[in-house]
């Protein structure tokens, strides 16, 4: 059984706090939206390609040439590159987060 | 809006590099000026840059059209760090995306910066300033900036392609043909970007208005 902390004692850190819950719920909702959309597109045999690629292909009809990104990332390499980039991006955002969204002293 | 290498002629690429440089130069000056005035600006700029990098690489599926696309985040960046500074962030983001993620090209960084960082960022920022000047609620001004900034980015991208490739076809017709490649997928994502922009700015206004002097609170307030 957990005893209440005495006055003057430091409060224990709550890691699974309201912010974490809200972020997890938002993430799960977004992922569910993506899964539902992807499932719908898969059932209806939609290609689900990016519009950038679609328009770049359309443009090469006029140029009669080849278009290519600066670097090609075939198959799972793209997933890996995105994961690495977003992992470190997440760390940087997390590091700076409290400076931006943490309640400042004297700010209501 | 990530135009790849090999589509625009070298002349067009050079012209878009020049056009973008005209905005990126003042952006560097704005960054230097703000860093001196506000110690929090540098880490803030880094975080906003990372956010633009992630947002503009995040492909979301849109089942109505059967394709995927991404929001841009440059209207939000323009409001948060300044319209000119946001163009500098766009160059860096597009360079890294071209170099490591297979998104866009090196010769087309000028064109892509112009559509995403300049057209998208400045249009969103201008609308934000206009609506705030008319005393519109913060969430409404932010949402309108996000929506318009997103759509203008893709309109500008389509125009860049049409200007180079319309040939015998009337320019406006070719422009709309390219835009229709983006538009139907982009419209729902622009609504998502509007909501996201509104939520972020509302959160910052309630938590840390002091981080945004001149944006949410008047300078010196």
Plain-language structure description:
The complex is a heterodimer of chains A (108) and B (221). With 108 residues, chain A is mostly helical. Chain A is built from three helices and no strands. Chain A is 60% helix and 0% strand. The model of chain A has no long low-confidence stretch (mean pLDDT 78). Chain B has a single domain, classed as Arp2/3 complex 21 kDa subunit ARPC3, CATH 1.10.1760.20. Helix content of chain B is 72%, strand content 3%. In chain B, a hairpin with a 4-residue loop joins β1 and β2. Chain B is globular, with a radius of gyration of 17 Å. Classes of the chains: A mainly alpha (108), B mainly alpha (221). Chains A and B meet through α1, α2 and α3 of A and α2, β1, β2, α4 and α6 of B.
Write a compact overview of the structure shown.
The complex is a heterodimer of chains A (108) and B (221). In chain A, 60% of the residues lie in helices and 0% in strands.
